């Protein structure tokens, strides 16, 4: 079974040769064991936020690291949003054929029939919102929430928080929809079609809410090898993300 996160999915989409080298032939690039300060800070900050949401004491650490204390303060309005349920540092998975799609979430806020995914980062580079919304990272996260939760796509959104030295973080929020969901299904089908196919593909059904129409039945046929990528794409109406 091949596990695909957003990074791997994007590489498969953009450069199959590199994808094959890294993730099929296991010729991974050398990794420097010495993490950069920015990477270490990001890992420590994510662990700190996880402890905070779990109700563990973090005050002594904040007193020692004032920069992280400022970042935590920036996120208080987000993590204190009233909700029926909050989950931090979790993953969502879905099996499609021989591929297991997986996405990580810093925080999921569930209230009523709505879900907000929250991603916070200490990265200095802030991408353009249009590029970030169309990225595999964003689209895979939203896709998996729609397929694994009993919530319609139109009631799901994702919020990115770029913490910094200002009074407030830079925040991007992207709302999902059934139209965007269908568009990503088409994109996902084209991307996964680059992988070698097997005759005994096991397909994990999409949620009952999304799997009963002709479009989803065609998607199932595609992943089972009963329909070629070209035949499947011909059945999908053109939609824009």
**Oligomerization status of the protein chains:** single chain
Indicate the percent of residues in helices: 40-55%
What is the number of domains?
Answer: 1
- Strand-pairing-aware structural class: alpha/beta
Task: Tell me about this structure.
Helix 1 crosses helix 2 (16-24), helix 3 crosses helix 5 and helix 10 packs antiparallel against helix 11 (229-235). Strands 1, 2, 3, 4, 5 and 6 form a 6-stranded mixed β-sheet that branches. Strand 2 and strand 3 (99-111) form a beta hairpin. Residues 30-34, 198-213 and 237-241 have low confidence and may be disordered. This protein has one domain. The chain starts with a strand and ends in a 6-residue tail after the last helix. By secondary structure, the chain is of the alpha/beta class. It has 11 helices and 6 strands.
Q: Quick recap of the structure?
A:
With 241 residues, the protein is α/β, with parallel strands linked by helices. It has helices at residues 6-14, 16-24, 37-53, 59-64, 66-79, 129-134, 136-148, 178-192, 208-211, 214-223, 229-235, and strands at residues 2-4, 85-96, 99-111, 114-121, 156-162, 170-175.
SSE layout and pairing:
Elements: E1 2-4, H1 6-14, H2 16-24, H3 37-53, H4 59-64, H5 66-79, E2 85-96, E3 99-111, E4 114-121, H6 129-134, H7 136-148, E5 156-162, E6 170-175, H8 178-192, H9 208-211, H10 214-223, H11 229-235
Parallel strand pairs: 1-3, 4-5
Antiparallel strand pairs: 2-3, 3-4, 5-6
Helix pairs in contact: 1-2, 1-7, 3-5, 10-11
């Amino acid at each position: 079974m091949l596990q695909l996160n957003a990074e791997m999915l994007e590489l498969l989409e953009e450069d199959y040769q590199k994808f094959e080298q890294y993730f099929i032939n296991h010729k991974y690039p050398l990794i420097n064991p010495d993490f950069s300060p920015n990477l270490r800070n990001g890992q420590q900050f994510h662990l700190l936020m996880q402890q905070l949401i779990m109700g563990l004491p973090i005050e002594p650490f904040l007193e020692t690291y004032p920069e992280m204390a400022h970042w935590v303060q920036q996120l208080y309005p987000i993590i204190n949003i009233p909700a029926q349920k909050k989950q931090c540092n979790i993953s969502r998975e879905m099996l499609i054929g021989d591929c297991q799609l997986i996405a990580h979430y810093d925080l999921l806020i569930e209230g009523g029939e709505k879900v907000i995914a929250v991603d916070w980062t200490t990265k200095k580079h802030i991408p353009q919102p249009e590029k970030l919304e169309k990225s595999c990272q964003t689209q895979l996260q939203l896709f998996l929430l729609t397929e694994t939760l009993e919530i319609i796509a139109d009631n799901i959104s994702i919020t990115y928080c770029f913490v910094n030295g200002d009074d407030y973080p830079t925040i991007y929020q992207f709302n999902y929809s059934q139209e965007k969901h269908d568009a990503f299904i088409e994109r996902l089908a084209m991307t996964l079609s680059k992988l070698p196919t097997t005759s005994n593909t096991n397909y994990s059904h999409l949620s009952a809410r999304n799997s009963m129409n002709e479009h989803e039945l065609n998607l199932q046929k595609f992943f089972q090898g009963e329909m070629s990528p070209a035949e499947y794409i011909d059945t999908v109406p053109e939609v824009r993300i």
